[in-house]
Predict the 3D structure of the following.
Amino acid sequence: MSKQFRVPKNPKEVMEWINSIPMYKEDQPLDLSFKSKVEIRVAQDANLIKQMERLEKFSPYYREKFKEWGLDPKSIKTIDDLEKIPVTTKEDYMKDRGESFKLDMDFNNIMEYILYEITYTTGTTSGMPTRFYNTTYDMFMQSWMFRMGCKIGYLEPTDVVMNLFPFHFIPHIGYYKTMHFAAATGMTICFGFTGAQLPGFPYNIHRPMQQAIEDIEKKNVNVFSGIGSYIRRLIMVAEEQGRDFSRVNKVQALGEAVPKGMRDDMRKRLQKMGAKEVFITNAFGFTESQTAFQECQELGGAHQGVPQMYYFEVVDEKGKRKPDGEPGLLCITHLDRRGTCLLRYLVGDIVAITDQQCPHCGRNDQRIVTTVGSTYGTRTKELLKVKGTLINPEIMRDAVANTAGVIEYQFIITKEKLDDPYSTDVIKLLVGADKGADQNKLEGELRDKVRRAVEITPKVEFVQLSEIFNPGDTLKATRIIDQRPQG
Ligand SMILES: [Zn+2]
């Protein structure tokens, strides 16, 4: 049994923790995130120059674009020069399902360019997943990146992790990257192996959530890695069964925004099952980064971790940079990749970033910081027009998720009269409440909170949990449904 885990609270304690783990201690001289801002910038500029050369030579997409833009890739020598380059949008990337963003094979460097892994972005506008390629070099670089990421999130080689991502018919990066980060750090790993049946496939290969609960107990699991709302459901079922989850001390709650109230709720339930201090992190990730950027403190910001691999900008639609800490569109540039390579790519999230040194751990890499409530990003496509006003659903979600007594919830945007497309927009809020909750009081509180958040009062309805969330049916809890007639 490992010693009781305590989350380091300041740079000194972070360094003591790093020095207590031989692998991390030995990695320290090469960990760029702890170097000075100047050293980081020098490494980024050097990598950018080489990346621009690669794009000119091997990227079918950017080779053409450089000509179209009248841009000499050799004129891009520093991170600040990036602003001269037009942005790449998701639509650009999806146009030929991502194929033209994959670098050509370089037969002089076969060990770098050999195709090693394909992942997919899900939920594309066309409905067809877009490919994202990793070469040998990318996989080796990711192994280093995962070690640095695990170090930020206090994952230790002696940890036992349960992979709670589903084994789905579209390979979910969470499932595969959990395997990779556990391998890269030497952790012990077990699998829930849940997931949806492949239509027409004759064998039932998946295991139920119940088996995962039993394995967590039996196999001395202390770390969970999975989708936030799924982990919470699992914890709730285990709590009802009075399970012993006393070893659990770290939760990687990923794949969706997990605000503070939801983390506190999970922690409280784990502690009822015997757990002590539990670090619940909502690392912020997306396919095009091939990772989830880790928190060193809950809500302390999502650390880049490997600044030699990425540069983040926050920009407006035209690609003009916004000042430090101001929200805008997240724009990422790959500085050292060989497979799918993106230059000033708009991820589709509204975030804020900071270049300031992290006060919690002392790292100097860029961090994505919270702007709205207690979550990192809002998908740009999720901005909703309700009653003629553009609202940010993240604010609405945050208001409800941080309410005691709410277990699961779903917003439905609909019309006052469904057969009349011109009738007023209505927000319905379906709530699965705690058994002991005072529903009248809760209803008033929720109406008030949502009204204050988005200036629209919702109609609150209490429903059975299974009506709004069934972990067997969907990958994630669907928090907002727009039922209004489209067009
Ligand atoms: Zn930090």
